[in-house]
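Try it yourself: sequence plus iron/sulfur cluster, in.
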Amino acid sequence: MKGRIHSLESFGTVDGPGVRYVVFLQGCPMRCAYCHNPDTWSTKGGTEMEASYIIEQYERNKGFYANGGGLTVTGGEPLLQVDFLIELFTLAKEKGIHTCIDTSGITYKPDNAAYIEKLDKLMTLTDLVMLDIKHIDPQKHIELTEQPNDGILAFTKYLDAKNVPVWIRHVVVPTLTDDEKYLFELGYFIGQLGNLKALDVLPYHDMAKPKYEKLGMDYKLKHIPAMEKSAIVDKKAVILEGIKKRRAEMQNA
Ligand code: SF4
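Structure, out:
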């Protein structure tokens, strides 16, 4: 079947372990203020491509990915096209390709049985999920992304229950997501996860600004300067404290 694809990248180095073939899927219901890819938001744009075509493209360069790399789907929000991902990852697993989904988790609806059935199937084909938690506080999450975070946090627990390995990512934006109270709470939340394999804490940068100008879109964070890379160490330490506290409590329970 065909998926709606924004673009393909044959040499991704920040989208999972090793070198990755990266598929950017079109469409995203989130509106993160710092999004680098606002051109992926519309579900109507992009180009339709067969899953088999993408695997063929992967195979043409498979030497790149041989050393611990693989295939990553990102976006946009890849889980909007769950049927397509099932087909793509089925073909990938037939070839022994490592599969990764880079997602915000926003599509997760625990009471939608048909969707959960598909998700269950997809998770059997998925080696790694990279999950962005944008803000742990419900109200601040809405202010930052225009969407609630309850489904995202439920998705995090779903992945744990399914024992799917997860890397959690969090972007620290000065004045918006750098409050240590919330960073600690984030750590405390993810500290309960048995499937947590890595924590990636990234400093906000404003490199997307020219893209917004080119698209004639308003860049909401124009007043916020990029974060000093060195400052991220202290912020990550606060999240790690939260993880430690939760794990200690669970051990003593
Ligand atoms: S979830 Fe990703 S693609 Fe969607 S708006 Fe946020 S940063 Fe952009």
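One thing you can check immediately is this: Residues 52 and 123 are 20 Å apart (CA to CA).
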